[in-house]
């Protein structure tokens, strides 16, 4: 499975979050087991030693709880440092518990001794689950307690010591094997989760790019005819609901066939791109749309724009193109590239068709071309 650095960082963040989210549950369990162990040892061992051990354990648990609360409220340092902090807390708690086993188990009866071993095994099992996301913390929690158990069991009668050592060894080995398998499943699940999320994000981006590409004209970069039809329909409905004006400007490059014949099709494509650049550059609102209508024809859709505003934009476009002074030796009206424009404005009413606006703008453009081109005509 291929993963990138971003996915690896997210997996590491999730593992550390799992570690800290389970911290309070571990502390509560450890506190309960400590109180049970203390109640078992009362009257069985030296009172001062027992009290000192319980106080040390409770202080360690309180400090770990304060650390968890503090870390939830303060900015996080590096992930490795967070893991190291948790490792220190877990290891210190396990060392204190192991010291208690070494100090007190030899002074108790067989029943209390067995219960202490059982409580220690519960701590080991809980540590393997709550610390699953950090192998370092697992070893910090397990090794002090396991070594204490082994040392204490080895000091007993030979037959009982052997049986206890085998039992603890089998239990710890089973825990480690189970933890290894669970850790593998956890990592695999997280990598799949974040890798699939990354792939889904890439697919969404590609899908959006394809959607935008399907709405763009490949030559000029403006919206294409399909996009214009959709936007016109939506703008028409909005203006109809609000009884607002909607304007349309049809633009035709004068004598474009002659331009192609004289300069070639590559130069013709460049000429269309320059005209499209003018349409894209003139100041207009976000709702306005510039599109390539077909061939050498372009269109400006201007919702919520009256006739005066449309005329102002049409004049700006003509002046911009005249300022570019693109040579056109085949033109019959000027020595540079010119355009003819048809402007139409309507106040849509329910039942009216958006096609009527196009028809009016097309009629105005036809009159501009019939009147000699290089001019603006208003429907």
What is the compact description of this entry?
The protein is an alpha+beta fold.
Please render the helix and strand layout as text.
Blueprint: H1 5-21, H2 23-41, H3 47-73, H4 79-104, H5 110-130, H6 135-154, H7 158-214, H8 225-242, E1 246-253, H9 256-263, H10 265-281, E2 289-294, E3 297-303, H11 307-324, E4 339-346, H12 355-370, E5 376-378
Parallel strand pairs: 4-5
Antiparallel strand pairs: 1-3, 1-4, 2-3
Helix pairs in contact: 1-4, 1-7, 2-3, 2-5, 3-4, 4-6, 5-6, 5-7, 6-7, 9-10
Give a structural overview.
Strands 2-3-1-4-5 form a five-stranded mixed sheet, sandwiched between helices. The model has no long low-confidence stretch (mean pLDDT 85). Strand 2 (289-294) and strand 3 form a beta hairpin. Helix 5 (110-130) packs parallel to helix 7. By secondary structure, it is α+β, with helices and mostly antiparallel strands. The protein has helices at residues 5-21, 23-41, 47-73, 79-104, 110-130, 135-154, 158-214, 225-242, 256-263, 265-281, 307-324, 355-370, and strands at residues 246-253, 289-294, 297-303, 339-346, 376-378. It is 70% helix and 8% strand. It has two domains: 5-200; 225-378, 2-Layer Sandwich (Alpha-Beta Plaits). It is rod-shaped, with a radius of gyration of 40 Å. It contains twelve helices and five strands. The protein starts with a helix and ends with a strand.
């Amino acid at each position: 499975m291929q993963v990138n650095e971003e996915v690896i960082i997210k997996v590491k963040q999730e593992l550390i979050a799992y570690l800290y989210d389970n911290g309070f549950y571990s502390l509560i369990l450890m506190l309960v087991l400590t109180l049970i162990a203390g109640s078992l040892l009362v009257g069985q061992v030296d009172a001062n030693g027992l009290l000192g051990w319980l106080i040390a354990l409770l202080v360690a648990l309180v400090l770990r709880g304060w650390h968890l609360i503090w870390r939830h409220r303060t900015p996080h340092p590096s992930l490795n440092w967070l893991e190291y902090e948790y490792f220190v807390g877990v290891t210190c708690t396990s060392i204190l518990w192991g010291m208690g086993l070494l100090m007190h188990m030899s002074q108790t009866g067989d029943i209390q001794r067995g219960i202490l071993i059982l409580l220690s095994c519960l701590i080991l099992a809980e540590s393997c689950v709550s610390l699953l996301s950090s192998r370092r913390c697992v070893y910090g929690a397990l090794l002090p307690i396991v070594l204490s158990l082994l040392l204490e069991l080895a000091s007993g009668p030979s037959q009982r010591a052997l049986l206890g050592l085998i039992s603890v060894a089998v239990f710890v080995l089973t825990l480690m094997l189970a933890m290894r398998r669970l850790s593998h499943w956890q990592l695999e699940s997280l990598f799949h989760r974040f890798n699939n999320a990354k792939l889904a994000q890439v697919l969404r981006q590609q899908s959006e790019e394809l959607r935008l590409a399907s709405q763009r004209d490949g030559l000029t970069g403006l919206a294409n005819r399909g996009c214009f039809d959709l936007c016109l329909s939506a703008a028409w409905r909005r203006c109809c609901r609000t009884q607002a004006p909607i304007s349309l400007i049809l633009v035709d490059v004068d004598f474009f066939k002659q331009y192609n014949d004289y300069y070639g099709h590559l130069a013709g494509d460049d000429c269309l791109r320059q005209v499209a650049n003018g349409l894209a550059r003139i100041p207009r609102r976000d709702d306005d749309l510039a599109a390539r209508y077909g061939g050498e024809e372009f269109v400006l859709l201007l919702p919520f724009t009256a006739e005066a505003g449309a005329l102002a934009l049409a004049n700006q476009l003509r002046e911009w193109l005249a300022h570019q002074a693109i040579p056109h030796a085949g033109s019959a009206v000027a020595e540079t590239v010119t355009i003819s424009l048809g402007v139409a404005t309507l106040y849509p009413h329910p039942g009216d068709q958006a096609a009527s606006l196009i028809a009016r703008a097309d009629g105005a453009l036809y009159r501009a071309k019939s009147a000699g081109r290089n001019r603006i005509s208003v429907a």
